[in-house]
Amino acid sequence: MELGKAEAAIEAILFAMGDSVxxxxxxxxxxxxxxxxxxxxxxxxxxYRTDRRGIxxxxxxxxxxxxTKSELYExxxxxxxxPKKLVLTDVVLETLSIIAYKQPITKLEIExxxxxxxxxxxxxxxxxxxxxxxGRLDAPGRPLLFGTTEEFLRHFGLHSLEDLxxxxxxxxxxxxxxxxxxxxxxxxx
Length: 189
Description:
CATH topology of the largest domain: Arc Repressor Mutant, subunit A
Largest sheet: 3 strands, antiparallel
CATH class of the largest domain: Mainly Alpha
CATH architecture of the largest domain: Orthogonal Bundle
CATH superfamily of the largest domain: Winged helix-like DNA-binding domain superfamily/Winged helix DNA-binding domain
Oligomer: single chain
C-alpha cells in the first residue's frame, strides 16, 4: 500500500473509531507490520504538529487516537456551550495520585495512605473516567481494585504510566516524617 493511501486509511480508522485504537489492529487493517505502521503514524503525527491543523494524533500506551488540539478547546466551548468540566479538588487529586502510583489498589489501601475515608474521591474519579475498576483482590471480602484509564493519560498529557514523574526519595522521606508527626500530634490530643 502506498504511503498516502496508508495515511488516509489510518486517519479514517482513528476518526471513525473515536477512541484509541491499538497499533496491532491498525497494522492489520492496513496490511502492514507493526513497526512500519508505527513509523507511518509518527510521520502523520509530525505532519499534524507542523501543519496548521486543529487535530493531532495522540499515543496512549501503545494505542493511538485522533484528538482536538488542546489549545483550540475554547472554540469547542463556544459550540458545545456546556462542556463537562472536571473539578479536581485537592482531595480528589491526592487520591488520584495515590491510585496512579500504587495501582492496582483497593479503597482500604488508599484510606490507609490518606488516613481518611476516600469513597467520595474514588467515586468522583470513576465518574470523571480517570479511574476504573480493574477487578477484585483475591482476599477476604474480595475488595475492588482500582487503576487509571486512558482518559487519565489523555487528560494529563501522558503516553503511558512510565511518563509519571519520579518521586524524589528525599522528599518521600520528608513526607513520611511529616505524616508521622501529624499522627503523633493527633494521638496526643
